[in-house]
Design the sequence.
């Protein structure tokens, strides 16, 4: 996974002026106070949020209990992935844990410029692959933690 992060960082560092200008044209800097929501459960995730500073979290409700699924730090991408891709309502919340500064890009604008700049297409693919590997790793950890409980309760 570290190899993927190195590739992602390399692509970001090597973005040319035209690509950076296109990204800046569709990006908006936003700030959120501690406790503010970037996304509510039930809303469609229309934006990706690049964390410039601060900490955010993703969570969902299970029997009225908040279950945090991710903590997001500087240079992380905060997005409710399924909702962002399908443009269907999110099952997750995204909330500022501290004051947060983000660069946000709406999905339709990113899709448009991604088609114009091959580096953004490659970056999008690498980030999707990285997120998928991270999810798989987390799932395997969960299975290893839960499997002994399932076996012993049978």
Sequence:
């Amino acid at each position: 996974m570290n190899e993927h992060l190195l590739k992602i960082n390399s692509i970001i560092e090597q973005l040319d002026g035209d690509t950076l200008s296109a990204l800046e044209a569709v990006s908006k800097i936003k700030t959120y106070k501690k406790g503010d929501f970037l996304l509510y459960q039930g809303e469609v995730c229309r934006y990706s949020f690049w964390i410039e500073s601060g900490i955010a979290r993703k969570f969902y409700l299970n029997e009225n209990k908040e279950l945090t699924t991710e903590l997001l730090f500087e240079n992380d991408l905060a997005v409710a992935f399924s909702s962002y891709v399908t443009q269907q309502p999110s099952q997750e919340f995204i909330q500022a844990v501290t004051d947060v500064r983000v660069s946000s890009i709406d999905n339709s604008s990113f899709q448009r410029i991604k088609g114009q700049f091959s580096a953004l297409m490659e970056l999008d693919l690498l980030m999707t692959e990285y997120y998928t590997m991270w999810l798989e790793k987390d799932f395997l950890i969960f299975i290893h933690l839960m499997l002994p409980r399932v076996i012993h309760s049978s």
In short: The longest helix spans residues 118-153. The two ends are 35 Å apart (CA to CA). The chain has a mean pLDDT of 88.
